[in-house]
Structures are given as structure tokens and as C-alpha cells.
């Protein structure tokens, strides 16, 4: 079975959407990535850090799904990373109200025993030096290194981000960030510029408008499923990344063709994530639901045109 190493935040989130408000609930990029990856036949491990205030019950949600947490450091007397966000009425944009790094501020990631030879490494959105440190701890070059990042790191740690980006295979980024990173409005031009920075594959996420995959001169597009219920988009990007990475770890075959399927799996899982607050929907997700929606994806995008 393929091994997937995930690095990212484990967090308390407090979320406000037009439909309601939560207190502190389970969140974090690594949490969403890990939960999405459990939909595939892979062995996965998380490298992260939390404080003593992080409930055992939250750990159990991940442990019970066979995610190896030996790389999750629990800092004595420390407080867990906290993020609070409020979505606008269109649910496509949000304001970050609070970011308390807490234990994440001095995080020194340690790759756990048995995962320094992981096939795929998924570097969740974190300080680029942390992402780089994990790459440097790998015994040999993984088959695939995927990196997620955001505008915050572009604004504050550009040089470090460029160092790590030069070492990876796939970057997942949203459209606004791709434009910011390259100063190109055209996403085709932006993706070409990003490929020059290092990653051979560029995935541009466009929220409810789907995702694009670029590799050399090839482009693939996956729509997002038009949903009746969008409740809370938090974690959709990470869930997408977890589905993408989980599928490729299971498939073992890294190519543009397999990445097309990976994008569909990522989009499919993200469509569930947004239906409830936080991780609620992902923890109860059943295989038959995932499969039924994959078929909906197929129907949504297939057509026969005959040229006369
Ligand atoms: P997404 O909605 O996919 O962009 O990711 C949301 C998750 O990212 C939330 O669960 C947050 O806990 C986490 N998060 C937000 N800001 C940061 C940050 N600066 N570093 C690490 N994780 C973060």
C-alpha cells in the first residue's frame, strides 16, 4: 500500500457563515487533508503540532481512521493554533478575523519513523521553511511532492517560498494567488510562469468554478459540482488536496492522465466538505455516497459532439 505523508496545521476553528456560527471546532489543513485521504487505500501519517488543550477525542477521529499521528507533537502547556473566519454572503470570499499561531509559531516538524520513505508528500499550507524541512528529512526523493500555499506566505516569505517551490512537483493554488504570484491575469500565462519556478504540474483552484490542471502544453479542467447546499467552505481547498494526493498515492502512477482523475476525486470530496460546518460531513462520509457523486460528475461533463 502506498504511503502518504501529510504536513499541515491541526487547529481549532471558529466559523461564521450566512447560515450560522460555531464555537471552537476541529479544523486545520492537515485534518482536512487526512480525512479526505482516508477515502483511498493508502497508509497516511500527519506531521503537525498541537497544544495540551487539543482534545483526545479530536485525535481519536483521525486515529480511528488509521491515520498515523506519531508525528504530531503535543506541546506541554501549549495552546493549539486557532483560526477564526467569517464568510461573505456569496460564500466565495471570507475575512480572517483571528489567527493565533500559538504552538505553530515554533513548530519544528519531525517526520515519523516509517514515513521518511513515503511515496507522496503533501505539504499543507504552512511557513515554507517548515515545508522545506520536511522535504530535507526524506530518505530518498518521494515519487511526488505536492505543495499548497496562500497569499500570506507570498507577502511575507517570498524568497523562502521560491526555495521550496523549486523542489516540488505539483503546486495547488487558487486563481487570485496564481495571479498575484506571477503578475499575469491570464491563468494560462500564470501557470506557464509558475512551471518555470519549479513545479511541473500546476493546479489552479477556482472555488465553485472548479479547478484547472496545467502541465507543459496540456490543460485539463474539472468543474465543481453545482450543489444545492453550500453551508461552510472551510477546508474545501485542503479536502481537494487530500483527495488529489490520496488518489495518486493509491494509483502509484504519476502522469498527466492520472492527475486528471486525481482532480476529479479532489473536487468530488470537496463537494461534500462544504455541506456542513468544519469536518462534520467528512467524518460521516460513506463510500457509496462518494461513488454516487463521482457518477454525477461524469454525467455533468460528458457529451457527444460529432463533427460533420
Ligand atoms: P481552506 O478553507 O481549505 O483554505 O483551509 C481552512 C483551514 O486552514 C482551517 O481549518 C484553518 O485552521 C487552516 N488555516 C487557516 N490559516 C492558516 C495558516 N496561516 N496556517 C495554517 N493553517 C491555516
TrEMBL record:
This protein's UniProt keywords: Kinase, Transferase
InterPro entries hit by this protein: Carboh/pur_kinase_PfkB_CS (IPR002173), PfkB_dom (IPR011611), Ribokinase-like (IPR029056)
Top-level taxon in the UniProt lineage: Bacteria
UniProt-listed Pfam families: PfkB
Segments forming domain Carbohydrate kinase PfkB: 3-282
GO cellular component: cytosol
Molecular function terms, GO-annotated: kinase activity
SUPFAM superfamilies named in the record: Ribokinase-like (SSF53613)
Protein's recorded name: Sugar kinase
Amino acid at each position: 500500500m502506498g504511503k502518504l505523508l501529510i504536513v499541515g496545521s491541526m487547529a481549532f476553528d471558529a466559523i461564521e457563515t450566512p447560515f450560522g456560527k460555531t464555537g471552537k471546532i476541529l479544523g486545520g489543513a492537515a485534518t482536512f487533508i487526512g480525512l479526505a485521504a482516508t477515502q483511498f487505500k493508502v497508509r497516511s501519517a500527519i506531521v503537525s503540532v498541537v497544544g495540551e488543550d487539543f482534545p483526545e477525542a479530536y485525535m481519536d477521529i483521525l486515529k480511528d481512521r488509521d491515520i498515523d499521528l506519531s508525528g504530531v507533537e503535543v506541546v506541554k502547556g501549549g495552546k493549539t493554533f486557532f483560526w477564526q473566519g467569517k464568510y461573505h454572503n456569496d460564500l466565495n470570499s471570507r475575512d480572517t478575523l483571528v489567527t493565533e499561531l500559538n504552538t505553530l509559531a515554533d513548530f519544528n516538524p519531525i517526520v515519523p519513523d516509517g514515513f521518511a520513505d513515503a511515496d507522496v508528500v503533501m505539504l499543507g499550507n504552512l511557513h515554507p521553511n517548515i515545508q522545506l524541512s520536511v522535504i530535507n528529512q526524506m530518505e530518498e526523493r518521494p515519487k511526488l511532492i505536492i505543495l499548497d500555499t496562500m497569499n500570506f506566505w507570498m507577502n511575507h516569505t517570498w524568497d523562502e517560498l521560491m526555495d521550496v517551490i523549486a523542489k516540488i512537483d505539483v503546486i495547488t493554488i487558487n486563481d487570485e494567488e496564481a495571479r498575484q504570484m506571477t503578475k499575469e491575469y491570464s491563468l494560462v500565462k500564470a501557470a506557464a510562469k509558475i512551471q518555470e519556478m519549479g513545479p511541473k504540474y500546476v493546479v489552479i483552484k477556482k472555488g465553485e468554478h472548479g479547478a484547472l490542471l496545467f502541465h507543459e502544453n496540456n490543460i485539463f479542467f474539472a468543474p465543481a459540482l453545482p450543489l444545492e447546499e453550500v453551508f461552510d467552505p472551510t477546508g474545501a481547498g485542503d479536502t481537494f488536496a487530500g483527495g488529489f494526493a490520496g488518489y495518486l498515492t493509491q494509483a502509484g502512477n504519476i502522469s498527466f492522465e492520472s492527475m486528471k482523475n486525481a482532480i476529479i476525486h479532489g473536487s468530488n470530496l470537496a463537494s461534500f466538505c462544504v455541506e456542513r460546518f468544519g469536518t462534520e460531513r467528512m467524518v460521516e462520509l460513506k463510500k457509496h455516497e462518494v461513488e454516487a457523486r463521482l457518477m454525477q460528475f461524469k454525467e455533468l461533463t460528458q457529451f457527444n459532439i460529432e463533427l460533420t
